Every structure is written in C-alpha cells, then in structure tokens.
Amino acid sequence: MQHFEVNFDGLVGPTHNYAGLSFGNVASLNNANASSSPKQAAKQGLQKAKALADMGLTQGVLAPQERPDVLTLRRLGFSGTDAQVLEKAAKQAPQVFLACCSASSMWTANAATVSPSADTADGKVHFTPANLTNKFHRSLEPQVTGRILQATFNNDKYFKHHTHLPDNEFFGDEGAANHTRLCQNYGHEGVEIFTFGRYAFDTSKPAPQKYPARQTLEACQAIARLHGLSDENVVYVQQNPNVIDQGVFHNDVISVGNQNVLFYHEQAFHNTDAAFAEIQQKFGDEKVYFIKVDSQQVSVEEAVKTYLFNTQIVTMTNGDMAIIAPTECRDSKAVSSYLSDLVTQNTPIKQIHYFDVKQSMRNGGGPACLRLRVAMNDQEVDAVNPNTLLYDTLFERLNLWVDKHYRDQLLVADLHDPQLLIESRTALDELTQILKLGSVYPFQQD
Ligand SMILES: NCCC[C@H](NC(=O)CCC(=O)O)C(=O)O
C-alpha cells in the first residue's frame, strides 16, 4: 500500500477583501481597507496548488463559503429582501456587516484538524472542523466547512466527520494551524503535536497580555479524544505567550513540521526542551531533525513579516524535502540568505520554491495557511470525491470559472452591492456542480 500527504488548498472566494478584522494578526490590521483583487487572489492560489501537483504531489481543492453571509445577517435582525438586508447592515452596523463578508475560509489550515488512519483507534481518517470562536467573522465558518468536508471526503468506510467543538472561548480551536504531525513515513503511526496559546480553566498559567491566544489546551485535548488518539502519540506544547504578543496568532506562523523535520524559531515554544524530549521519545528510534532558527539569524518580527515558517515543507517523489515559500521570503535579505544556506546543510530539506501569494499574505495567510494536509493511503485517496482532485482538467476549468465570475478589483465599499451577492452565488452554484458537492450552501437550501 502506498501513502501520500495530499494538500487540499482553499479556493479563494469572490468577496476576497481587506477589512482589518483580525486583531493580533499584523497584516490584517495593516492592510485594512486596501483594495483587493479576488481574481488575482484566486489565481495565485490555483497556481501554487498546480505547481505542487506538477511536482508529482497529489493536490486537492476545498470550496469556499457563501459570502456575504445573508443568513447570519438575518439571524442578527436585518430583514427584507436580500438587497435590503445588505444595505441596512452596511449602514447600521458596518463592522458586523464586514465580518459577514470575509472570504477567510480560503485559509484551509483553519478548516479542521485531521488525524490520519494510522493514528486513530478505529483506523479511519478523522476530521473536526475548527470552531474559530476568537474572531466573529471566522466563527461563521464551521458548519458549512463541515458540509464541504463531508462532500469532499464522502465515504463513511474511510472517513469520520465530527461536529466542531462547543462554540465558546473555553474550547477555542483553530484547526491544523496549531497542529503538526511528525512521522517516519506517512503510513506509519505519527506523533501529533497540538500547540495551544492558553489554559482555559487555569488562569494562573502563562498567557499572552496584548493579543488573544486563540487556541486552548482543553480544545486540543478534546480533539485528541474525539479522534481516538493514543497518549503515546500525542504531545501538547504551549506557544511562547510572548511571540503571540508579537503577532504570532497561530503556531504555523513560527514553526512547521513534516515527517522527521520540525523547523522552528527559537522563541516559538514555552518549555521547548521538555517538549522536544517528549516528541523525540514518542517518535521512536529514528532521529527528528529539530531545525532551529535563532533570533540573530531571523528576528520574530522578520519571521512574521516574511512568513518564513508559514511555508510548506513537502516530500518530493525522490524523498528529498522542498520548502514552498512566499516571495516575501526571497525579498528579505536575512531570510533568503538563511534559506540558501539551509539547503546546503545536513537536513532533508534540499530545495526552495517561491510563490507569489501576495493577495493572501496581505491578510496574514501564507502558503501553509492556504492548505489542509490529509495523509492517506491509496484506498483512501480513491475514496475521496474525485472531482475535487486538482489535475490539468480541473485546473483549467477552475481558471475559466474564476475568469467568468470574479472581479478584478474590489473595495470594502463595494461589498453591499447586491450585484456582488448575485455574482457570488452564481459562481458558487456553478462550483458545486464542477466539484459535484451537492447543495452545501445555505442559498441552495432555501
Ligand atoms: N491562517 C491565516 C489566517 C488569516 C486570517 N485573516 C483574516 O481573517 C483577515 C481578514 C480581514 O482582515 O479582512 C485570520 O486572522 O484568521
């Protein structure tokens, strides 16, 4: 049996915009109200995904969500026709309205936590959508995310879907952005590393002071229970509260792992030595490469600006690893010289590939945010909805679909345009036919 890691990239939705919604995410705050290009954003994402497919990796896509979220606006008391709902909300509660327009589901690293079948008690691949409670605009995602995941991984024999954790800050969960899995190979039992920002039920423990810690230990523990993980395969590590206060709102902004590599900044974790000893012990006899970047090489500020750690580390068909980095890393002297040196060292990382994902970066989402990793064996890959796997035909079809429906430019002030709602729904309706997802959106269920 063969084993793969498949990346499911989030398609950028037609309302991609910069509304400054994410307190604690420096790029989101700095780019508030800038004009965006949904078309360019979607194409940048597709290019990156297709390039990985061309490198011989299996690549899938996940559908975006319906925005503006008229259903939520109605729940909040705005009434009338859809156009009236948009107009009233934009006028009477602009911040609430903007939150209901975000295309943030594009960052599928926050869609769910996934545990491969090699790690779970029942031998199925488990999915728990993230509840994303810390940000109102993101808390609107989990229900539809669950439907999209079920329509993508639509076979009960191999896939187990859980409901997202209770919607409150005690169980704040941001999905795979705070979860990394190390393993000797993808089919082998792995070590699932859950990273959290604070203890929900013990306020005497360290926590950030300035920016929110979005993920709690208790949420991580609940997911490990739901997925049937053994204590022998799980490590919980607290993020260094101080780096959260410097803009590291998810752990994937300061560390990334793949197979036997954990690439991290020296300030990423609290109690690093104890955590790494536990990881190595649970990993087994083979050595884990803990690749440390220290503050003199790259400061936390530079790491947040360039997203050095929001890179993907992928295993190529010849067994070497490659780093998939945003062009911001190439444009930084400190980071690009670090990376050029890294590939000459004695680690599995041998190549660096740069991609322009600026439209996403301006909202604090790099290459790693744009993908959800699902390690599977060949039978499981065969059980995935085949229309969501990105081969040449789907790539071409999706590019045409973007050209047909997406605007070149969008301003925050355009979001209440009723025509945009019609365009978005028309696009998404067609997308569900292309990907054969069925009726996953509220507007399709009226
Ligand atoms: N994993 C990357 C997530 C980025 C995302 N940004 C946003 O939602 C910004 C949206 C805006 O500000 O318009 C977040 O912070 O959760």
What brief labels describe this structure?
446 residues; alpha/beta; L-arginine/glycine Amidinotransferase, Chain A; binds N~2~-(3-carboxypropanoyl)-L-ornithine; hydrolase
Structure description:
The chain has 446 residues and is of the alpha/beta class. It has a domain at 3-67 and 102-250 and 356-444: Succinylarginine dihydrolase (L-arginine/glycine Amidinotransferase, Chain A). The protein is built from 17 helices and 15 strands. The chain has helices spanning 26-30, 38-54, 70-75, 82-92, 94-99, 136-139, 142-152, 217-226, 241-244, 272-283, 300-306, 327-330, 333-342, 358-361, 378-383, 392-405, 418-434; strands spanning 3-10, 59-62, 112-115, 125-129, 159-161, 179-182, 191-196, 234-238, 255-258, 261-265, 289-293, 312-315, 321-326, 349-355, 371-377. The strands form 5 sheets. It has a 3-stranded mixed beta sheet, with helices on both faces. Strands 3-4-5 form a 3-stranded mixed beta sheet. It has a 3-stranded mixed beta sheet with strand order 6-7-8, sandwiched between helices. α10 links the parallel β10 and β11. The longest helix is centred in the first third of the chain and has 17 residues, at 38-54. The site of N~2~-(3-carboxypropanoyl)-L-ornithine has 21 residues, from loops.
